[in-house]
Design goal:
This protein has 267 residues and is an all-alpha fold. It is built from twelve helices and no strands.
């Protein structure tokens, strides 16, 4: 191994250690038998058993899953339709709409959260609807999930051979039948990847959820935040480990789905 390769490998090792060492520490210390402090006193799975019998944590996990599933389904449908419209139709302002798609991606979470909270407050003062709770959290998550889904699906559509759609229409298929039987099966890996990305973002979100939550709608990230204020304990590490594993699983699925090549796609 020459000096240049050795230097690059060392730099990569340091970078990966910087990125993943904190995650490994959280996972390892979730098995620490010490209740308080950072000293390692022995291995135990007690905190996972305690966590599984904690009704507050189970309720938060239920809210997190409901929030993630409902927001993912809605944002996937809307984001896919948006991506298809931007990719296949010409209309005034199409370029502007395509660029505006990136605004929710780049805007800071806290700004988006405050904007949503203010919007909910105005709508509630005018109509009496949108009381803070799981419903407002779902709407908030859909708001920032749609752009991510649309961006992923648009990238899939960009690599799709449009001649297949044209052939279907030449054979008499309507636009809906063409989309349902030709386009959708071809872009399905991208749609599923966008859905998994949306679910992972929902699972990890704290800021937007915190600002738009109400009584009885606590999620796991919010529960962790409220628990950390009383001190970091191994049960918090165990709860964080569950979220880490779920996020890793979602990320791996997104990567696998993104690399699936559908028939008729261009490389």
């Amino acid at each position: 191994m020459n000096r240049r390769s050795w230097t690059l490998n060392l730099a990569a090792a340091v970078l990966y250690a910087f990125l993943y060492a904190p995650i490994v520490v959280v996972i390892v210390y979730s098995f620490n038998s010490a209740r308080f402090g950072g000293a390692w006193t022995g291995f135990t799975t007690e905190w996972y058993r305690t966590l599984l019998s904690n009704s507050t944590a189970l309720a938060a996990a239920k809210n997190t899953l409901l929030l993630g599933v409902f927001s993912t389904v809605i944002s996937t449908v809307l984001g896919t339709l948006l991506a298809f419209g931007l990719s296949r139709y010409q209309f005034p302002g199409r370029g502007l709409f395509a660029r505006l798609l990136f605004v929710p991606v780049f805007i800071p979470d806290v700004v988006l959260a405050v904007a949503l909270l203010l919007t909910y407050s105005l709508v509630r003062s005018w109509t009496g609807f949108l009381e803070l709770g799981l419903g407002t959290m779902i709407l908030a998550h859909v708001t920032f999930q749609i752009p991510f889904v649309a961006i992923v699906v648009r990238s899939r559509l960009a690599g799709l051979d449009s001649s297949l759609e044209e052939a279907a229409r030449d054979l008499g298929a309507s636009e809906w039948r063409t989309f349902r039987h030709v386009t959708l099966p071809l872009i399905l890996p991208g749609v599923l990847a966008g859905a998994m990305l949306a679910f992972t973002l929902s699972l990890d979100d704290f800021v937007v959820s915190f600002f738009t939550s109400g009584p009885g709608s606590t999620t796991l990230p919010i529960l962790i935040y409220s628990s950390v204020k009383r001190g970091i304990t191994p049960d918090i590490n165990a709860l964080s480990t569950f979220i880490i594993l779920a996020s890793i699983g979602g990320t791996v699925l997104v990567a696998l789905l993104q690399h699936l090549r559908a028939p008729g796609s261009r490389r």
